[in-house]
């Protein structure tokens, strides 16, 4: 009896200590989240925002006045698998030059509570446009201080610290797979130190070569490939590449009569027409495309549609084609199914030397298929 009583007492003590420990850690996390959510950053419009801490994943959601659409995106993020990594959700709302912040959008996102980590809302201090929303809402904390300057012949040197934080930039007309972060993290881990790595895109439905319309794909035994152009339907930039791009963009933007024309490409033709119509600021990515071309850098895309079969749930992100800047009427959003289950083989299938595809969707010469 005495032994049994002592055993029960010891068990009770251990159990109490465990409950106290986990309760303390849980309360500590809540307190840290509370402090984070109530920290006000001073990031003025027109200058890259450097955050006060480094986390594993920083999700950047950019929105304006599509309330229902941004809420669909936020709800899809509730299922994002993080594998215990630390994440923060940063929601950036652009400001109309005349009427200010859209109250309906602000009130809606203010009620959203992300279950994966702290949520913060940033109201632009002046109208940023799609260009400012994309380019200036994240700068890696470990990068050199922001300084507009011309591009160098080589990229900022890679350091291991660059791999500590991933930023995933999402426009409000997207929905993401629960497995999106696992794919992005695997790609960053595999290719992050390469000089030709511009970042990784979630674009899965309608990933096509711009100059030919051909579907982009790699062999079915490889889970990713590289393409010469960025995919903006969800993008996680290479941190050191992004920092240098920001420095160059803010330098080149002030050069009189300079435009990032890239002749011989479909995006280049689109951009010329936008310049003629006075709407070039709606195509921020042309600056990134031009920069990547000069740096000979490529974006990683998922090939899981062809690993699993075209009809399977294999997309790491979809564009819902909501009415807005790019779509005058609602488009289809059922062109592919979001990837629901992660298979560890997807990471092992990332090739050491990924296939590089040119503007027509053909393998780039003088690379592995030369």
Concise synopsis of the structure shown:
By secondary structure, this protein is an alpha/beta fold. It has one domain (57-357): Spore Coat Polysaccharide Biosynthesis Protein SpsA, Chain A (Alpha-Beta Complex).
* Strand segment tally: 13
Question: Helical stretch count?
Answer: 10
Termini, distance in Å?
Answer: 81 Å
Contiguous low-pLDDT stretches (5 residues minimum) are none
CATH homology superfamily: Spore Coat Polysaccharide Biosynthesis Protein SpsA, Chain A
Largest sheet report: 5 strands, mixed
- Helix % is 25-40%
CATH class label: Alpha Beta
CATH level-3 fold name? Spore Coat Polysaccharide Biosynthesis Protein SpsA, Chain A
Order of helices and strands: HEHEHEHEEHEEEHHHEHEEEHE
CATH hierarchy: architecture:
Alpha-Beta Complex
Physical arrangement of strands within the biggest beta sheet = 8-6-9-7-13
Domain count, please report it: 1
**Rg, Å, rounded:** 22 Å
Protein name: Glycosyl transferase 64 domain-containing protein
Organism: Helobdella robusta (Californian leech)
Transmembrane segments: 7-24
Keywords: Membrane, Transmembrane, Transmembrane helix
């Amino acid at each position: 009896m005495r032994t049994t009583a002592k055993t029960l007492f010891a068990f009770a003590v251990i159990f109490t200590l465990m409950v106290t420990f986990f309760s303390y850690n849980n309360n500590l996390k809540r307190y840290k989240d509370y402090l984070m959510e109530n920290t006000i950053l001073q990031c003025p419009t027109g200058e890259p925002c450097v955050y006060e801490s480094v986390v594993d994943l920083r999700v950047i959601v950019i929105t304006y006045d599509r309330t229902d659409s941004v809420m669909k995106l936020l709800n899809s993020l509730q299922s994002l698998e993080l594998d215990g990594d630390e994440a923060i959700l940063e929601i950036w709302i652009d400001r109309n030059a005349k009427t200010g912040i859209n109250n309906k959008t602000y009130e809606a996102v203010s009620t959203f509570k992300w279950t994966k980590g702290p949520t913060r809302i940033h109201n632009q201090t002046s109208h940023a446009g799609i260009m400012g929303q994309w380019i200036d809402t994240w700068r890696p904390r470990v990068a050199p201080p922001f300084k507009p300057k011309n591009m160098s012949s080589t990229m900022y040197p890679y350091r291991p610290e660059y791999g500590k934080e991933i930023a995933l930039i999402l426009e409000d007309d997207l929905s993401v797979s629960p497995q999106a972060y696992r794919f992005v993290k695997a790609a960053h881990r595999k290719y992050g130190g390469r000089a030709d790595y511009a970042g990784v895109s979630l674009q899965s439905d309608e990933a096509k070569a711009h100059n030919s319309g051909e579907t982009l794909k790699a062999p079915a035994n490889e889970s990713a490939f590289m393409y010469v152009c960025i995919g903006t339907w969800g993008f996680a930039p290479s941190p050191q590449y992004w920092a240098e791009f920001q420095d160059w963009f803010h330098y080149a933007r002030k050069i009189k009569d300079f435009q990032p024309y890239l002749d011989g490409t479909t995006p280049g033709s689109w951009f010329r027409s936008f310049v003629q119509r006075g709407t070039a600021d709606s195509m921020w990515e042309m600056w990134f495309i031009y920069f990547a071309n000069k740096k000979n850098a490529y974006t990683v895309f998922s090939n899981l549609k062809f690993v699993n079969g075209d009809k399977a749930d294999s997309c790491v992100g979809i564009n819902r084609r909501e009415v807005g800047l790019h779509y005058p009427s609602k488009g289809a959003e059922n062109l592919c199914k979001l990837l629901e289950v992660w298979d560890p083989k997807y990471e092992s299938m990332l090739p050491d030397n990924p296939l590089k595809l040119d503007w027509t969707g053909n393998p780039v010469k003088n690379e592995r298929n030369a």
